[in-house]
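Give me the fold.
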Amino acid sequence: LFTVLVFVFLYAPIFLLVIFSFNATKSNRVWGGFSLRWYLELFDDSRILGALQTTLLLSVSAAILATILGTAAAFGFYAMKRRTRNLCLAVNNIPLTNADIITGVSMMLLFVFAINAFNATIGGTLGIKWRMGFMTLLIAHVTFDAPYVILSVLPKLRQLDPNLYEAAQDLGAPGFLAFRKVVLPEILPGVLNGLMIAFTMSIDDFVISYFTKGPGVNVLAVEIYTMVKKPVTPEINALFTLMFVFLLILLAIINLRQSRQERLERKRRSALTPRQ
């Protein structure tokens, strides 16, 4: 009963939000009939559409870059000695355990210092002025996305046969071809999981984006925060509903992939286990 009450407390507001996003009136308490009015007004709002476009571009770019860097870092960690690897993993886990506001403020201070130093030296000489904007936002998102990719790829590297890469080279495959044809397919589930987790974390971030974005650049989470300061309209309910459904589908895909990988791994192990 206690567990049921906890779930009701957590999810009842979300279901009410979804229901009232289809309300024909502005009321969030009285049902006035079914309507798609607020979804139509949502897609006519240029500010929200612009923030959505920036958010999708940022999330896709950050997820791809974090996946590339995180996968390369995972290979580096895997090749280290145990004590050095444990030290690097401890450093890698700092962005995961650290409070978002600490990460956001520290990165903002870093960007302000770097921008001022650049504008006073190289930028002043070349006549280039750098300021906070999409690039600082992208760097910040890649920074906190990469650790998730590393933690997703490392278990697959531990399951990988260490002689597989050398065996492919002995059979005539050059270095990169051996990696692409032999090693990458083995770790691809971990890479894809890291990619999807990085995308989910990036599209849902507010605190770090709030501190590292520049003027004229707005992401969806910050835009929603700005809208909530005003009297709440069902247009926000419609936006929340679309975000909730999208992230729910994405997380369901991640969980289904992980379940499928676990089943395939169990079948592979049972096939390799000698029968008595």
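The chain is about 80% helix and 0% strand.
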